[in-house]
Write a structure and sequence with these properties.
Length: about 375
C-alpha cells in the first residue's frame, strides 16, 4: 500500500452467484404476499381464508407453537402449519453482552448452513442486525464474514424469521428492560444484501407490510447496507421504499479502496458515491457512509480531507452522514483500530468541511457480534 509498511492485501475472488444445484429452503408465508399465501392453500385443497389467520399468528401475535392457534380446526391445523409455517432455522447458541441487552444468535438453516443475527436493545429502540447470505462473496480482507466466502443466498423468509425471532424475544420480556418491540432492522449481518437483491427486497416488503400481512414496521427504521453494487443501488432507488441506504466506503480513493473493497475494481469510488447521492436525491433519505477506521491504513488526515471533498462535490444540502466504525478485531487479522487521537482528528476534519460525523458504538465486540466479526462458527 502506498502509505503503509504492511504487506499488500490478498483478497479472495468476488462471488456474486451461489453454487448451483442447491436445494431451496421450504416455502413459508413470509416468502409470499397475501394473494400468494391464499393461492397456495387453495392449490393444496385447503381453505384460502386460513392464510390470513396464519399470517396473524406469525406476524401479529408472534406465535411459534401451533397448539396456540386455536382458531384453526384441529383436523386441519397440522396441514395448514406445514403448508405455510414450516420450520426454517434452529437456534444453536445465543451469547449475551451488555448485561443481556445485546444477544447474538447462531442459527442452523435447513441445509446445515450457519448464519448469525444480533438483537440490540437501547433505551429508546431495539434493533435487529440480520444476515442476508450464509457467508459473503465480496472478499473484503478485514471482515471475518468476507474471508469465509459465500455459501448461499438466504430466502426472504429466512431473513424475516431473524426479525420475527427478535420480536418474540422482546414481546416476551426475554431481554432486560421488560416487554417491548423491535423498532429497527439493519441489513448489516453476514452477506452483501444487494447481491441477494430479490430476497432482500421481499424481506423489506414483509417488514413494512401492515399487519397481518407483515410486521407493519416503518421503512425509515430499516437500513440496507452495501459495499457498492451500483446497478442494484440504482434499482433500489426506483423501488419506492424509503429505507436508509448505508454505503460501506472505507476509503475515499480508488487505489486504497481497490484493496480494501475489491468490488471497487468494477465500480469506482466516483460511480459508487454518485449512485448513493442519486439515491438520496430521489428518496429524500440521507445516506450513511460507513467507514471502518484502520490504524495506518485509511485513517490519515489527508484521507479525511479527501473524503470530505468527495462527498461535498455533490453539494452541501445534507444528503450524507459519515459513520466511523472503530475496527473490530477478527482472528488472525493484521489490522487494528485507529489510535483515538487519529480518530478524533478524522472527525474534526470532516466536521470542518460540514460533514455530519459520528463514531459508532461497538456493541457486542466481546461476543464477536460487532461489525465485521460475524463468522458463524458452530
Amino acid at each position: 500500500m502506498s502509505d503503509s509498511t504492511q504487506q499488500p492485501i490478498k483478497t479472495l475472488p468476488l462471488v456474486f452467484d451461489e453454487p448451483r444445484g442447491r436445494k431451496k429452503p421450504p416455502r413459508h408465508l413470509a416468502d409470499l404476499d397475501e394473494a400468494g399465501r391464499k393461492a397456495l392453500l387453495e392449490e393444496m385443497g385447503l381453505p384460502g381464508f386460513r392464510a390470513k389467520q396464519l399470517s396473524t399468528h406469525y406476524f401479529g401475535r408472534l406465535v411459534d407453537d401451533p397448539a396456540e392457534m386455536t382458531d384453526l380446526p384441529a383436523t386441519q391445523r397440522d396441514e395448514l402449519v406445514a403448508a405455510l409455517l414450516p420450520d426454517l432455522m434452529t437456534p444453536l447458541r445465543t451469547l449475551e453482552a451488555d448485561k443481556g441487552t445485546t444477544r447474538k444468535t447462531l442459527w442452523k438453516l435447513f441445509d446445515g448452513a450457519l448464519v448469525e443475527s444480533v438483537l440490540m436493545r437501547y433505551p429508546d429502540r431495539a434493533t435487529v442486525c440480520v444476515s442476508s447470505q450464509a457467508g459473503c462473496g465480496m472478499a473484503c480482507p478485514f471482515c471475518a464474514t468476507g474471508q469465509g466466502g459465500l455459501q448461499r443466498n438466504m430466502s426472504t423468509a429466512e431473513i424475516v424469521e431473524q426479525v420475527v425471532a427478535g420480536a418474540r424475544s422482546m414481546a416476551r420480556g426475554e431481554v432486560p428492560g421488560g416487554p417491548g418491540r423491535v423498532s429497527n432492522v439493519v441489513f448489516m449481518g453476514m452477506g452483501e444484501p444487494l447481491a441477494n437483491y430479490k430476497a432482500v427486497i421481499g424481506a423489506v416488503r414483509r417488514l413494512v407490510d401492515p399487519s397481518p400481512a407483515g410486521l407493519g414496521m416503518s421503512a425509515r427504521g430499516i437500513t440496507v447496507s452495501t459495499v457498492g453494487l451500483v446497478p442494484r443501488i440504482n434499482q433500489l432507488t426506483e423501488e419506492g421504499i424509503p429505507v436508509t441506504l448505508a454505503l460501506s466506503l472505507h476509503a475515499p480513493d480508488d487505489e486504497l479502496r481497490n484493496e480494501l473493497v475489491p468490488i471497487n475494481t468494477r465500480y469506482s469510488v466516483a460511480e459508487t458515491v454518485e449512485a448513493a447521492w442519486n439515491y438520496a436525491r430521489v428518496t429524500k433519505r440521507r445516506v450513511s457512509i460507513e467507514y471502518a477506521m484502520m490504524r495506518g491504513i485509511n485513517d490519515q488526515a489527508h484521507r479525511a480531507d479527501l473524503l470530505g471533498d468527495v462527498l461535498n462535490s455533490y453539494g452541501d444540502w445534507g444528503w450524507v452522514h459519515v459513520n466511523l466504525i472503530p475496527l473490530n478485531p477478527t482472528p488472525g487479522s493484521k489490522w487494528t483500530a485507529s489510535d483515538p487521537a487519529d480518530e478524533r482528528e478524522f472527525v474534526r476534519r470532516l466536521e470542518a468541511k460540514g460533514i455530519p460525523t459520528t463514531v459508532r458504538d461497538t456493541r457486542g465486540s466481546d461476543i464477536d457480534g460487532a461489525c465485521g466479526q460475524l463468522a458463524a462458527v458452530e
